[in-house]
């Protein structure tokens, strides 16, 4: 059962809060002074603190509450604190929220708003605790991997990204082609860089080509080169990317956009290492390892005749899947902190917003949102509204991407041997959220 500490010298307020919280299965302990409140914090597991701003009968400045909050926040920086304040202390309460308080409520408070705020903060705190617990386990694996291999500065905490990076390091020393699949902006290029950095040709050329960004009429010349006069505008000889990557690695991003004529030539290079520049009959030979990436369903494109089946199996000797950010919830906050200026912080509400959003644009979208918020925030503390993400969009994307059905929950429980914390993390939920869905679907605990 969740437990809240109420620090208030008014017994009537403490009793009212205790009755209100008990209706939602939340236990309350009460301290009638700051000193007793700090003592109870040392000896009781507390999920949240609700504190008054004044404790002496002749004091209305709110300074006592200010001092108490600073003491709590210094000793327990991750513990959410809600301030109960009168209108006269509103300005100070706002300043304390900027300094790290979770929220403030004016007396008399709105029961519905208070319960909603408390539930959200407790759920976020549980998620943070679960994350820290699992991160401590994963960090050992991640540290071991990072000590053995060059991970190219990849920021991650999720099990899924750890698995992708582990596979990348395992196949790095081989010269076989690798196909990296996953949505746009999810980190496929980081996987390619990791493969190259740990390969036997790490000191050789590493040439990147974004096929989707090149005009179709220039693709073949870009990849295979062209002689002067081979086409309109070709005033001088062009060295292709395959020649530039000779002896090293060529990374072909968005390989699904390669036209069929280019696919035939690519297949030949993979089979024989041979090709001709456009406008030339001279056969050239290279030794290049090819890593490709796509966000497209290539098997579906094979069915529609847009992608060659023989090329697919040449490219897909090893496939590394990169999960979307919505399925790597553990990566969201570490990435957000990485993209933020060092002197900025996130409010609790901002963290909750980041974790609830489905990130259809993945890591690239997260980076843009954080940079925008850092510029537009009124101070060094970033609030949820600074992200420019609408509530409606959060709700829609969360339903689309994060709402597991009964079968998904049963599968996650089975895969994690009924470990609620691990199953919840796999589904992108907190423990309490998973429990509620298990009750909804009548899944035995």
UniProtKB/TrEMBL annotation:
Coiled coil: none
GO molecular function, one term: ATP binding
SUPFAM superfamilies: CheY-like (SSF52172), Homeodomain-like (SSF46689), P-loop containing nucleoside triphosphate hydrolases (SSF52540)
Domain Sigma-54 factor interaction: start-end pairs: 154-375
Domain Response regulatory: 3-122
Keyword Nucleotide-binding annotated: yes
SMART domains: AAA (SM00382), REC (SM00448)
Post-translational modification 4-aspartylphosphate, affected residues: 52
Protein name: Sigma-54-dependent Fis family transcriptional regulator
Taxonomy of the source species: Bacteria, Pseudomonadati, Pseudomonadota, Gammaproteobacteria, Oceanospirillales
